[in-house]
Amino acid sequence: MTKLQRHKEGKKHKLCAFVPLCLFLISLSGCATLTHNKDISPNNSDAYAHYCMGTIYENRREIDKAICEYESTIQGDRRAIIPRYILAKLYVRRGFIEQAVEQYRVLSELDPKNTRLSTVLGALYLHQGLTYSKTGDYERAVGSYKKLLKIFRSDLSYYYLGVAYERMGKIYHADRQFNRAIKLNPDYAEAYNYLGYMYIDRGKKLDKSIKLIKKALEIEPENGYFADSLGWGYYKRGMLDQAMLQLERAVELTKAEEDDPVIRDHLGDVYFQKKMYNKAIEQWEKAVELGVKDRKIIEEKIKNAGRK
User: Fold this and answer.
1) pTM of the predicted model, to two decimals?
2) 20 to 30 Å CA-CA from 65: which of 27, 164, 211, 221?
3) What is the number of helices (H) and of strands (E) in the chain?
4) Cα dihedral value 291, 296, 298, 300, nearest 10
5) What is the Cβ-side half-sphere exposure of residue 18, based on CA atoms within 13 angstroms?
6) Using 50, 70 and 90 to split pLDDT, how confident is the model at 117?
7) Which class for 152: exposed (0-12), middle (13-18), buried (19 or more C-beta within 10 A)?
């Protein structure tokens, strides 16, 4: 996770941090019962034979072989629902998300009254978008989140779309998505924080951004990452005393659970500007110890402060 992502998101989002997504999707797919059961016709001998073999392999837990047989089944009978449904679930189980998305998309067309299929498809688009974002493929992540939004217009969907746009440098588009998330959920602390820090880190709209982060802290007053965002906003405004107060608090709130090198770096910068050079060095050395990404830059800061 980049510096921007870690500090703008604050605590990791509840859904993504505490629920293993693959297991979440598998459980959803198991709930997506069919509204009607169009099975393979025994008269379609080839397709029916592959279907039977797929069932045998699945019962033996030979999943890859079962997948091959079910793939052959739907090639022989493209409108059969049950084998496609089983194939989609097996794709999810094996982590083949792209293939699962395509099968659930077709199932939604074949079984349009089944709203649970749409639920699974939406969850898969979310998973897909998060996976693309993790690998830095934000353009494809945007595509997945837009597809998700066609199914569910939720604060979560808009939030992650905003994150992807921000990582692409499309600030105007990111701003719109975060505001849409906030409109749907006025208590969405992560959205306030991310939106505010997005501008603070670029040195823009500082007063408005500070207000946004204060709102995030009203909702989650003990969130150390939000306190860091506020402190960094004060630092950018030249309000060093307020910045020091918030950043010291941010360190206290995070060091027991997950001591963060970027917060330490921020506090070091404030101490340096206040000519508290020994304290600045102490924070920067701690940032290096914690594995700060820009190690060479921090080490240069330490050398510079040592000359004062």
Assistant:
1) 0.81
2) 27
3) 18, 0
4) 150
5) 5
6) confident
7) middle
